[in-house]
Amino acid sequence: MIAFRAILRSYQEDGQAALPLCQQAFALLSAENYLVRAQVACAQFWAYYTSAANDAVTAIQSGLQAVSLAQVAGLTTLALALMSSTAIHMIGTGQLHEAHQLIQQGMQMTTQSAGFVLPAVGWLTLLQADILREWNQLDTALVHNQATFLGMSR
After folding, report:
1. Would you say 51 and 62 are in contact if contact means Cβ atoms under 8 Å apart?
2. What is the tens place of the pLDDT at every residue in 71-100?
3. Which has the closest alpha carbon to 10: 41, 35, 33?
4. Contacts of 137 (CB under 8 A, 6+ apart)
5. CB within 8 A of 21, min separation 6: which ones?
6. pLDDT tens digit sequence for 101-120
7. Which of 10, 21, 34, 85 could form a disulfide with 43 if both were Cys (CB 3.0 to 4.6 A apart)?
8. Coil, helix or strand for 152?
9. pLDDT (tens digit, 9 = 90+) per residue, 15-41?
């Protein structure tokens, strides 16, 4: 219950209430409960970024922790969503190379074993194009986007 209260508070942008709940939830959850731990790390990610704490560095660390927990739990869709959210904050804090690396990791995960491309590739592709735009690599961004979206339509 504490974990879900933390999640709810973070989505309500009540970081001052969410952060202590996150710490309490982490202390009570078993190390093997990857699903709920990933969700609490996600709540912590949002709480650090949107609360009065306004701590982008710690928020990004929480986001990366949530990504890792989601991957261990086999929650690919959640991991990809968290990668996109974390990359957005990395871009916002000027960590373009780190964001690009995280996006590349996510792009590798987007193709399922049956060959279907997961929908989350859209956000990753958009973020990748934004980084390439920042680096003034517009032609490369266009080629990547066309390859991704043409591949999805087949």
Report:
1. no
2. 998 888 889 999 999 999 999 999 999 999
3. 41
4. none
5. 2, 3, 5, 6, 9, 43
6. 999 999 888 765 456 666 77
7. 10
8. helix
9. 788 889 999 999 999 989 988 888 899
- Give SS3 for 111: strand
Which pLDDT belongs to residue 28?
A: 93
Query: Secondary structure of the chain: what % helix, strand, coil (to 5)?
Result: 75, 0, 20
Q: Name which of 90, 104, 70 is nearest 134 in CA terms.
A: 90
Choose between 51 and 100: higher pLDDT. Answer: 100
- Write phi, then psi, for 117 (nearest 5 degrees): -95, 130
CA angle 10, 13, 15 (to 5 degrees): 65
pTM (predicted TM-score): 0.80
Task: Reduce the DSSP state of residue 117 to 3 states and report it.
Answer: strand
72, 98 Cβ separation under 8 angstroms: no
According to DSSP, the residues that pair with 117 across neighbouring strands are 111
